[in-house]
Amino acid sequence: MANTENAGSTADVPPVRYRVSGMDCAKDAAQIERAAQAAGVAPGDVKVSAATHIMTLTAPEVRLPDIEKAVAVTGYGFDRIEGDEDIPPNPAHQDPAYRRALWIVVILNVGYGVLEMIGGFISGSQAVKADALDFIGDGAITFLGLLAIGWSLAWRARSALIQGIFLGLLGLGVLGTTIVRVFEQTTPDAGLMGLLGMIALVVNVVSVLPLLRFRKGDANMRAVWLFSRNDAIGNAAVVIAAGLVAWLGSAWPDLIVAFGIAGLFLHSAWAIIRDARGDLKATA
Q1: I need a surface site. Which of 5, 19, 148, 175 has the fewest CB within 10 A?
Q2: Which of 106, 88, 87, 96 lies closest to 213, judged by CA?
Q3: Beta-bridge partner residues of 20
Q4: CA-to-CA distance for 101 and 109, rounded, in angstroms?
Q5: 6 in a domain, yes or no?
Q6: How many other CB atoms are there within 10 angstroms of residue 183's CB atom?
Q7: pTM for this one?
Q8: Which residues span the domain enclosing 49?
C-alpha cells in the first residue's frame, strides 16, 4: 500500500504538468498513477489523462525528483511543462504524410461503415450493424482528432469529451438494439454476414497500412494505429461468429459479438469522458 502519511498538505502547492509519451490507453494512465502513489503521492494529487496524455501532479517541489524517478520506472517518458505554457505540438503531427494517412482512415471507415450498415440490415446481423457503427464512429473520431492537431490543451480536452459522448451513445444504441434482438432471435444470413466481415477486415488492413510508418511515433499516433489494428481483430470476430451461426443455426454467436462491441464502446467512452472532464477542470 502506498505510504501517503508523510506526503504533507498540498493545499497551497500549485500543480505541475508533464507531457507523457508512450502511453496508449486508460490502463497505462492507471499504471502511472499507481507508481506515483507508491512514491507517497496521495490519490487525489495525481491525475493522468488518457485523452490528452498529460500527468497533473500536486506535490512540493522538493519531492518532485523522487516522484519523477518513481514514475519513470513505468517506462513512459515524462517532460515537464513549465509555467502556463501549453503542450508544444508534436512536429510529426505536422507531417503531410501523417495527415494524408488519417484522411485515408476517415474516408475508408465512414465509407465502408455506411455500406456495412446497409448490409447489416439486409443480412439481419446485429454484429455487422455494430461493426458498421464502429467503422463510422472511428472515422468520425479520427476526423475530429485530425481537426484537433495543434489545438490548445483545453480544446483538445473538449474534443475528447465530444468523442467520449459520441462513443457512449453508440454503445447504448448497440446495447439497446441487441437486447431487443435477444427476444426476437432471428438467425442472420451467415453467408452475407461472413462476406461483410471479411471485406471489413480487408478495409481495416488497408487503413492500417498507411499508418505503419507512424506506429512508433508519439502516443497519439500510436493510438490511432492501435485502434485500427484492434478493429481488424473485431472484424475477424464477426467472421468467426458468422461461421458459428452457420454451424449451429443459432443467432447467439452474432448477438454475443454485438454485446462485446457495445461493451467496448461503453468502456472506452467512460475512460475518455472521465479524463476529458479532469483536463477541463485542470485548465479552468
Answers
A1: 5
A2: 96
A3: 78
A4: 12
A5: no
A6: 6
A7: 0.63
A8: 14-79
